[in-house]
Design brief:
The complex is a heterotetramer of chains A (112), B (1026), C (225) and D (416). Helix content of chain A is 12%, strand content 29%. Chain A is α+β, with helices and mostly antiparallel strands. With 225 residues, chain C is an alpha+beta fold. In chain C, strands 8-9-10-7-1-11 form a 6-stranded mixed β-sheet. A 5-stranded antiparallel β-sheet of chain C has the order 3-4-5-2-6, covered by helices on one side. The chains are: A alpha+beta (112), B alpha+beta (1026), C alpha+beta (225), D alpha/beta (416). Bound molecules: flavin-adenine dinucleotide, nicotinamide-adenine-dinucleotide (NAD), flavin mononucleotide and zinc ion. Chain C: It comes from Salinicola rhizosphaerae.
Chain lengths: 112, 1026, 225, 416
């Protein structure tokens, strides 16, 4: 039962208010018609599914109805940060494994 | 009757701190009447009355009695309940407070636990039922397994479920706090007080009937007063603080992510069978507190470990600490002559208390070569015989196995796992044992944290927490700190700092003062050796509830089950309702020895919620019965109810399905009759449908039109203000996901309608594309589903009727098909859409929902002369199907493209923006010619209504498995066509028009149908343009 | 160019109306009632969407209420309230009959900017929950933390309410308001009555509400640009 | 292999059970195997067993990072049925069903396959359309099953509330009498014992950490116990398949989610059959030990923690009490979670991969236990022949690129 910081409501809310929406930062190909069948299949169906740090999209469905991003460890379920659409994560698999960044995250959603 | 309480120590000895001898309570067990006192548990009351055999064991049907005083009890599992509806299976007698009229039975044993017939099987068959025997037998013949299985099932199980519904209610409370303290022993109380003084929100819970934990019956002095008094003082102080919530009889059962903890508060289970009404109001029998805590203090103490020796399951074998608890709390001394077998000092208290309660201490077998320490000295001073370096290797019993009658004591070589020297048999009726303590780490483990073994305390403690578990503080015995003074110091030192780091400022609290006793070091003994090898010795039980013996564990390892998880699953160790609270560590230690490993190498199995079992009702709370799931109503709902409508569940909505009328004969119409009548009314006169449940989304903004063009498959560029258009929506895989009519209200303003079931999902769909992919588009979406009540007036007389009520010019030229107008209907401002889902002349009237009823009633007030008939979803389905209009979710299943549906006319191939779904339509699979395509089916026999879901074949003569080419998606009898007809999807169907297909049915009949156009009625669409 | 179509949905006051809870029986405040529930139906509810920079001054000048910019903030005026729902969404509740005029004035004040105003008055209703156990009833109903330490007067949130959603806001020390959707109103009310049973709960229907339209003459139903 | 029978039990009782043989050896890894199976769950073990038994390929290792059968095989609600909607899926699960029917005898190990029947309830008109569609398709595919009325449901499962009181009254059900449950651990152990007896090496506590490749072909695996050579590698690692695919340099259309289950305390027999409801979402049966085994829902987020949200448990029990109000006083004993590998079309992947010699069998998601013997059987055939078994062929990864999904989401109901 996660306690999730909504970067728009600027407070922690209970998991029941949110819906997970899969992997974050999956941009639709700009020119779909020029995208190969394989690449289109990848866009539709193929995901990172990492065991570890994952950037995912959530929506504060029963709340402000905004979509936002969550960086979460899929092994421990620790939420490392949350950040708005259009922003880039400050915590990544690389930053975690090299031990940098996490603490310097300045985005609104860093879990206290 | 109180003379029956033969094991109750007389008043005057200062024992029985918690019972009220002035409040006797009558209860029955296995049909026999007994008496106990207020303050008893069912277990202490049974012991007081000398009831030794409380149950029969699971596999061998051996007599079993109470062994423990708390949540760890494996044996005394009873069926509670005085009536059928209040039958409660598998209640731990040790955690059930006694109340007047309590009615309990053993869960196993026939005819009862005393004289059980199954025990014969246990005795005779026992040797042939080693662990895992069922995997090795009952295989032949295969057909017999179900029969064998029935027998096995009958013999298994504990209590039984009631056959009537639960008379009680349960509820939930959502709580948030700064500090949740689980366990109210001395450490929990001190931690709670420390935190509470800061003003922080504190919750303190304890599973027991009272606060205090081990301090309830401790003989220590805290801050200068006896421990039980100290408890009372602290509780009183806490109760006076408005930032503290005290929850007694409340078990923390699950510790979930990010410090979410479930607490189950038993509110009335100590009072009676069923929760009584208070002042005419229902009270919840129990309450689930769903707690989100910033910090969790785990002060759950430690469970004493019994020793594993032969015959250790016979009634009269008890946990040492439990013996003390009963004597001190309830003045119950459960026997006459005690032999204590221990590995540590603490257990000596049982012997001292036994003696103080007037019992005889025959001997103390201490596994340590040189027991020393304050408690040992006290025992010596009291004249007790201490046999050093020894242990009870076997408890002997009377012939029936109903009670211990002796203890065989021998010197034990722990390292060599053998006995040394001769065996002495002592006459006794009670063997109390203590093999040390296991910190209650269960909750910590729920979050995925593995316990860590500590050699110094011979137990597992909570492991280092991983990231998501922040603010987690094990303290006291739960943390493996068995010296209370050290535990207090640790709390005083670390808790303020931990909370301060989270902004909760604490004033330092002085740890309570106490006198510490010198303790001798304990030894680790888990499985007491016997003079015979384990496999040949009398049974030495590890898991009493599941009848798992040391031999079973050894056999499992012999058979190659080397992981402790395999051992668990092969032997069922720890699978019981007690989840191995007593036996697991011993079992792991035995497995470790058999495998030549250390205990930490062997590791623990995983502790999971619940800490103790919780009834389903308590977890369900009020989400049952009429509150199980919301029923959504339209503004006209009451009217439909009054008209006797039958309802259909569509999502959470209740929609009128059809309106059966009273026939002249006095009978109610069947659905078929009602629907035929409603259909004819629409086709011939006029009908009205409550269409309010359709999803409605208000879309405003300069880019609304562009947005629609990207989301829908068809074009919106040219839709003029005042006009409406049907649209299809696909996912990006090209499959149809929703449809509906969208109207251009003004240049920057559209109203989208969605399917009833799809409304919420479509709004979210629009938002996700807008927020994540096209934030630059200036457009906003707002749900107006509930705001508008919608009435579809349809049929040739629709215009005539409506014109009586509206100021809008309804002339066919002034207000064309697929247009909308604003005006009033029956004096109520309305928007009217000329759209049609029936194929008839239709006006969809929308008014603000608070004003729906006057309009609806006005329609009926004027409708008689036109034959106005209300119709439901079934008629709506027939009418739309006659027109070949699809229902997404019925005629589609997530695998149909617009082209499969024959709706190329609704696909804007040349739209500039690559709209959602477009790319997928050119993938190889979506281009296949033999895809399933939507067609009409006309059964050759006009009377036949094909079954929805019937499968279609081309060759009815082929053998099974048949090649199926599609199925019927919608099928009805058309009163208009006087013919059954259907919509279906058929492979390559669009090219099969005129062909015959076959539908072989379960009853052996094969229907024949012709593939036809999916439009059965008014193919040119003239009627809606009237 | 007609950018947006909107109209006054209210008929003349003589036309009867039905609140979403019209069918539920009242429960008189007998015995020791610790919670009182009232429906305040027939108010006008407007959903405002737009960037704060676009909306703020216009909203303030038209409604007299400062647009709350902090998340979870509600401001209350005389019979009116304005609540933050999301960074670009607010709920304006005004006495019944005033919504249309306000919408017209707001639209005028906002001019060509990009925003949206949607009348949702028929789609939701306002309930108040009052009394010493009001918090206890809420604690049984929502996962949101309603403790006064966390939920001061002037706060409002959208959260889970039993198996539906609700807007929950705190008007003063003992008074709370709930905004629930019309189609879920029956369920929410049943839930509340059930949750309040142990404390003693009374329910008053909407009839007791004063109708602003009776005070002011009804505006014509007017089509606007 | 030591034969098990009632007679052998008697014989061993005389020697106090001191002489039973191991179920399987604990061998040291060889340098190289003809086939390496990664993942010692039910499917991996079945694959190894059938490789040895039906294809004579015995130089095989099963590499398991933990203990045999400790993944989803240890965690599932053990429902076995074959009444799937689409032809491809029906063929696969019915193939498995036929193997289940003789499995205890074939393995000389009682897997307690109990054909007590499976009910899939319908609560809405659309549920009933879907049920009819599926049952009709099953019948024409030669799979047993019928559509039953509420009255008949009550006869089959008397504890179920089929009255109109319910929020979503039961309108009917599909009934597959040949469906049922099996003892999940025994399935893994039976296949393991069978494979071991035929010479397969079962390497426990051995984790594959990477693949050895040569010219785009797999030639072995790296493990925490050193490198092991292999001519062919089959990965059967359920929730961890995505991680292994990444090691081999490609992605799979998989997401790993928490799926939970729970059990009540043991009760005297009260349920006769398996009852599943997609609409109110819960499914339940009673184990031979007496506990009610209840399937909870899947969490929407990725999770490798083998645990899920409490609210899923709450919703599941709400559904169970709605269907069986008499269980209100029955108590929940334990809950747990597994990591299920879900595909976009709720159908498995049994496929070649971009790496030659490397095959994957995964994506069984929430419902692969029932397929265990069938999956192992067709996968073994495919590994042995170097080409996909006809029943497995439609389940290739390619379908996610061509779009030829086999969509069991639509009409098949809950996937268990
Ligand atoms: C709660 C729950 C309920 C379910 N209910 C049902 C049901 O009722 N009916 C049904 O049919 N199905 C059900 N399922 C699904 C079913 O359990 C699975 O589909 C099936 O058991 C998968 O078997 P498997 O052998 O493929 O995977 P698993 O049993 O998970 O085996 C995979 C093995 O691979 C090992 N592994 C992973 N990575 C590595 C590595 N790098 N190196 C070495 N080994 C590795 C793992 O340790 C594991 O043992 C349920 C699943 C869950 C979680
Ligand atoms: N010398 C030894 O070997 C030894 C060993 C163990 C304990 N002790 C002594 O025992 C005392 C331990 O004090 P403590 O405060 O740590 O523990 P405690 O045993 O006094 O209290 C623990 C309390 O937690 C409750 N509890 C456990 N699990 C719970 C749950 N899930 N939900 C709700 N309540 C739960 C228990 O019922 C109990 O009341 C100390 O005095 C210590 O010295 C000594
Ligand atoms: C069909 C089935 C029945 C189970 N029955 C019980 C049971 O009666 N008692 C119990 O404690 N656990 C039972 N379990 C759960 C296991 O103890 C264990 O939780 C599960 O295998 C997952 O493993 P883990 O909890 O060690 O991670 C059962 C599991 C399954 C799959
Ligand atoms: Zn938010």
């Amino acid at each position: 039962m996660f306690y999730i910081y909504c970067p728009y409501c600027a407070e922690y809310r209970e998991e029941e208010e949110f819906h997970p929406k899969g992997q974050a930062h999956i941009a639709r190909p700009l020119d779909p018609m020029a995208t190969s069948d394989d690449a289109w299949g990848d866009y539709l169906f193929f995901r990172d599914n990492p065991r570890g740090v994952h950037h995912e999209l959530w929506v504060h469905a029963v709340g402000c109805r905004k979509f936002f991003n969550v960086t979460r460890d899929t092994r421990t379920y620790a939420i490392l940060e949350t950040y708005r659409i259009g922003e880039q994560p400050s915590v990544t698999a690389d930053s975690v494994s090299t031990g940098s960044a996490a603490s310097t995250a300045t985005l609104t959603g860093v879990q206290a | 009757m109180s003379e029956l309480q033969q094991r109750r120590v007389a008043a005057g000895a200062g024992l029985g701190l918690e019972i009220d001898r002035d409040r006797p309570l009558a209860f029955t067990f296995n049909g026999k009447a007994y008496q106990g006192y207020a303050g008893d548990t069912l277990a202490s009351a049974l012991l007081a009355n000398g009831v030794d055999v409380v149950n029969r064991s699971f596999k061998y049907s051996r007599p079993r009695g109470v062994v423990a005083a708390g949540a760890e009890e494996p044996n005394a599992i009873v069926q509670l309940g005085a009536s059928e509806a209040t039958q409660t299976p598998n209640v731990r007698a040790t955690q059930q407070a006694l109340y007047e009229g309590l009615t309990a039975r053993s869960t196993n044993g026939w005819p009862d636990a005393q004289r059980d017939m199954m025990s014969l099987i246990g005795k005779v068959g026992g040797p042939f039922m080693p662990v895992g025997f069922y995997y090795k037998t009952f295989k032949a013949p295969a057909s017999m397994w179900l029969t064998y299985e029935k027998m096995i099932r009958k013999a298994a199980g504990l209590g039984r479920a009631p056959s009537e519904g639960d008379p009680d209610i349960y509820d939930h409370v959502h709580r948030h706090c700064d500090v949740l303290v689980i366990g109210s022993g001395p450490t929990g109380l001190f931690a709670a007080l420390t935190a509470a003084k800061s003003g922080a929100r504190v919750i303190l819970c304890d599973e027991q009937e009272r606060f205090g934990g081990s301090a309830r019956d401790s003989d220590e002095t805290l801050d200068g007063v006896p421990a039980p008094h100290w408890v009372a003082q602290i509780v009183e102080r806490l109760a006076a603080m408005d930032n503290v919530t005290l929850l007694v009889r409340t078990t923390a059962n699950g510790y979930f992510d990010h410090n979410f903890v479930t607490l189950h508060e038993r509110r009335t289970e100590h009072l009676g069978d069923s929760a009584a009404m208070t002042g005419g109001r229902r009270q919840a029998r129990s309450r689930l507190h769903r707690v989100r805590a910033r910090h969790v203090v785990l002060a759950t103490g430690a469970h004493e470990r019994p020793l594993v020796y032969a015959g250790n399951d016979v009634p009269g074998n008890l946990l040492a600490g439990a013996v003390s608890s009963w004597i001190r709390r309830q003045a119950v001394r459960p026997g006459e002559r005690l032999v204590l077998s221990t590995t540590n000092d603490t257990a000596y208290r049982a012997a001292l208390d036994w003696q103080a309660a007037g019992g005889e201490v025959v001997a103390i077998a201490d596994a340590r070569a040189n027991p020393e320490g304050a408690m040992v000295e006290r025992a010596r001073a009291a004249g007790m015989r201490i046999i050093a370096g020894s242990a009870v290797i076997e408890a002997t019993t009377d012939r029936k196995g109903h009670r211990v009658n002796g203890a065989r004591v021998a010197a034990v070589d722990i390292a060599g796992h053998r006995i040394d020297g001769s065996i002495e048999t002592l006459v006794c009726d009670t063997v109390a044992s203590s093999g040390g303590y296991s910190p209650v780490v269960h909750l910590a483990a729920h979050t995925g944290v593995r316990p860590v073994w500590r050699d110094d305390i011979l137990g597992f403690v909570p492991g280092q927490t991983v990231a998501p578990v922040k603010g987690f503080h094990p303290v006291g015995a739960a943390a493996g700190v068995y010296s209370l003074g050290m535990a207090f110091d640790a709390i005083a030192e670390h808790l303020p700092a931990a909370l301060a780091a989270d902004g909760i400022a604490l004033a330092p609290s002085a740890p309570p003062q106490l006198e510490t006793l010198a303790q001798g070091e304990a030894v680790g003994l888990y499985h007491v050796p016997h003079d015979k090898p384990t496999m040949r010795a009398p049974k030495q039980f590890v898991d009493l509830q599941n009848d798992v013996t040391a031999a079973a564990i050894e056999l499992a390892t012999i058979e190659g089950f080397e992981s402790i998880e395999h051992v668990k699953r092969y032997t069922a160790m720890g699978f019981g309702t007690d989840q191995g609270k007593l036996g697991n560590i011993n079992g792991m230690a035995i497995a470790a020895r058999c495998l030549g490993q250390t205990i930490p190498e062997t590791g623990t199995t995983v502790f999971r919620p619940n800490y103790t079992p919780v009834n389903f009702g308590a977890i369900v709370g009020r989400h049952c019965g009429e509150l199980f799931d919301p029923e959504r109503y339209t503004a006209m709902h009451q009217w439909h109810v009054e008209q006797g409508a039958a309802f259909e569940d569509v999502g959470q909505w209740k929609r009128p399905w059809y309106y059966p009328r009273q026939k002249a004969s006095g009978e109610r119409e069947t659905m078929h009759e009602a629907v035929a009548r409603e259909c004819r009314a629409v086709r011939e006169q006029v009908g009205v449908l409550d269409a309010s449940t359709l999803g409605k989304i208000d879309i405003q903004g300069p880019d609304a039109r562009e947005f629609l063009g990207r989301i829908y498959t068809n074009g919106w560029e040219k839709l003029a203000v005042g006009k409406a258009r049907y649209g299809l929506m696909c996912k990006d895989d090209g499959m149809v996901m929703d449809d509906g009519v969208t109207t251009c209200l003004a240049d920057n303003h559209f109203l989208m309608t969605t399917t009833t079931g799809g409304a919420a999902a479509i709004l979210e769909w629009l938002e996700i594309w807008h927020q994540t992919e096209w934030p630059e588009l200036e457009v906003y979406f707002t749900s107006v589903t509930d705001h508008w009540a919608t009435m579809t007036l349809t049929g040739p007389e629709a215009r005539n009727l409506l014109s009586e009520l509206t100021d809008i010019d309804l002339d066919r030229e002034a207000f064309k098909f697929m247009e909308w107008r604003e005006g009033t209907v029956a004096g109520v401002p309305a928007r009217i859409y000329r759209i049609s889902f029936t194929g008839e002349l239709s006006f969809e009237i929308n008014v603000q929902a608070n004003y729906a009823m006057p309009v609806w009633e006005a329609l009926f007030a004027h409708g008689d002369q036109y034959g106005l008939t209300p119709y439901g979803t079934e008629t709506m389905h027939v009418l739309r199907a006659e027109k070949g209009f699809i229902i997404v979710g019925q005629d589609t299943d997530g695998s149909m493209t617009p082209e499969d549906l024959g709706m190329q006319w609704c696909v804007g191939y040349n739209k500039p923006y690559p709209w959602i779904g477009k790319r997928a339509l050119t993938r190889s699979d979506t281009r296949r010619e033999d895809r399933k395509q939507l067609v009409g089916l006309k059964p050759l026999d006009a009377e036949v209504v094909l079954e929805e879901g019937a499968q279609i074949v081309l060759d009815p003569k082929q053998a099974i498995p048949m090649r199926m080419v599609g199925h019927v998606t919608s099928s009805y009898y058309s009163p208009t066509l006087d013919h059954g007809f259907a919509l279906a999807v058929v492979k390559g169907g669009h090219k099969r028009l005129g062909e015959r297909v076959y539908l072989p049915m379960a009853d052996g009949v094969t229907h024949v149908a012709e593939v036809v156009s999916s439009i059965f009625f008014d193919p040119k669409g003239q009627r809606q343009n009237l | 160019m007609t950018r947006v179509a909107y109209f006054d949905p209210h008929p003349a006051p003589t036309v009867p109306r039905q609140s979403p809870l019209h069918h539920m029986a009242e429960i008189a405040p007998t015995g020791d009632v610790a919670v009182t529930l009232r429906e305040h139906a027939f108010r006008d509810h407007l959903n405002l969407r737009g960037e704060p920079g676009v909306l703020a001054s216009a909203v303030e000048s038209v409604t007299g209420l400062a647009l709350p910019l902090e998340p979870q903030q509600v401001v209350f005026g005389d019979g009116t309230s304005l609540q933050w729902l999301s960074p670009d969404e607010w709920l304006l509740i005004v006495p019944g009959g005033e919504g249309f005029r306000l919408q017209r004035e707001l639209r005028k004040a906002l001019g060509d900017a990009h925003f949206s105003i949607v009348d949702v008055s028929g789609g939701q209703t306002l309930l108040s929950l009052e009394g010493e156990e009001a918090i206890s009833v809420l604690m049984k109903s929502t996962v949101y933390d309603v403790d006064p330490r966390h939920f001061p007067v002037g706060k409002g949130v959208t959260s889970v309410f039993a198996k539906a959603n609700a807007i929950i806001r705190r008007v003063d020390d003992t008074r709370w308001e709930l905004v629930v959707r019309r189609s879920f109103a029956d369920y929410c009310l049943r839930w509340l009555l059930d949750a309040g049973e142990e404390f003693g709960i009374a329910f008053q229907r909407a009839e007791h509400e004063v109708d602003a339209r009776e005070a002011a003459p009804a505006g014509e139903a007017e089509m606007t640009t | 292999m030591q034969r098990y029978s009632g007679f052998s039990l008697v014989k061993h009782a005389l020697s106090h059970h001191e002489n039973w043989q191991r179920h399987w050896r604990n061998p040291a890894p060889k340098k190289e195997y003809d086939v390496v199976i990664v993942g010692g769950g039910g499917h991996g073990l079945a694959t190894a067993y059938y490789l040895a038994k039906e294809h004579g390929i015995t130089n095989v290792a099963v590499i398991e990072k933990g203990w045999l059968g400790g993944g989803n095989t240890a965690r599932n609600t053990t429902i076995v049925r074959s009444n799937y909607l689409w032809d491809e899926a029906a063929a696969l699960y019915e193939h498995a069903m036929k193997l289940w029917e003789g499995l205890s005898q074939d393995l000389n190990y009682n897997v307690m396959f109990s054909q007590r029947g499976v009910l899939n309830l319908g609560h809405t008109l659309q549920d009933m359309r879907d049920i009819q569609r599926r049952v009709n398709a099953n019948r024409l595919n030669g799979i047993d099953g019928e559509v039953v009325t509420p009255e008949r449901i009550k006869e089959i499962e008397p504890a179920l509330d089929v009255s109109a009181r319910a929020r979503y009254p039961i309108l009917g059900a599909s009934w597959q009498p040949r469906g049922g449950v099996a003892r999940h651990d025994a399935v893994a152990w039976g296949f393991a014992r069978g494979a071991d007896a035929l010479g397969v090496d079962l390497l426990q506590q051995t984790e594959v950490t990477g693949f050895k490749m040569l010219d785009g072909k797999v030639v072995g695996v790296h493990t925490n116990r050193g490198d092991i050579g292999a001519k062919t590698v089959g990965c059967v690692t359920a929730g961890n398949s995505g991680t292994l695919a990444k090691m081999a340099g490609f992605q799979l259309p998989l997401e790993s989610h928490p799926l939970q289950a729970l059990v009540s305390e043991p009760l005297k027999p009260i349920l006769n059959t398996v009852t599943m409801s997609n609409h109110v979402h819960g499914y339940i049966s009673q184990s031979d030990k007496g506990d009610l085994v209840i399937g909870a829902g899947i969490d929407g987020y990725l999770g490798y923690g083998q645990r899920g949200s409490f609210s899923i448990v709450e919703h599941t029990l709400q559904a169970i009490v709605e269907m069986f109000p008499v269980f209100s006083r029955v108590r929940m004993n334990r809950q747990w979670g597994g990591i299920v590998d879900t595909t976009p079309d709720a159908c498995p992947i049994i496929s070649r991969t971009p790496v030659r010699g490397l095959y994957f069998n995964c994506g069984w998601g929430t419902g692969g236990f029932k397929a265990t013997p069938g999956s192992g059987n067709v996968f073994a055939w495919s590994l042995a022949h170097g080409q996909m078994h006809p029943i497995a062929a439609p389940f290739s990864i390619d379908r996610f690129r061509t779009g030829a999904l086999i969509d069991e989401h639509g009409a098949a109901g809950v996937a268990h």
